[in-house]
Design a protein that fits this description.
The chain has helices spanning 2-26, 31-46, 51-86. It has 3 helices and no strands. The termini are far apart. The longest helix has 36 residues, at 51-86.
Amino acid sequence: MHVDQTIQQAEAIVRFAQEVDRRLAECGIAGARELLDSFALLRRALGPIDLAALDQAARDAVRLEERLHALGTELRHLSTLKAAFDAPH
């Protein structure tokens, strides 16, 4: 009975591994080895990047977005004002 359980568990693991490989293939990744290699490459690429610099860049991007939004609002107001002046009275 113990051997049968071991065989069933091994078969379940194999099916699970095949399902993982199938899902990875759907994403264009050729198996778990390629996924791990990609992870290692990404880790090496991100390693030298300073986390504080990334955080600062993210804050700068948010401030820029806020400024651009405000500028867009001002431009819409100017457009409305110009249209009012250009309209025949």
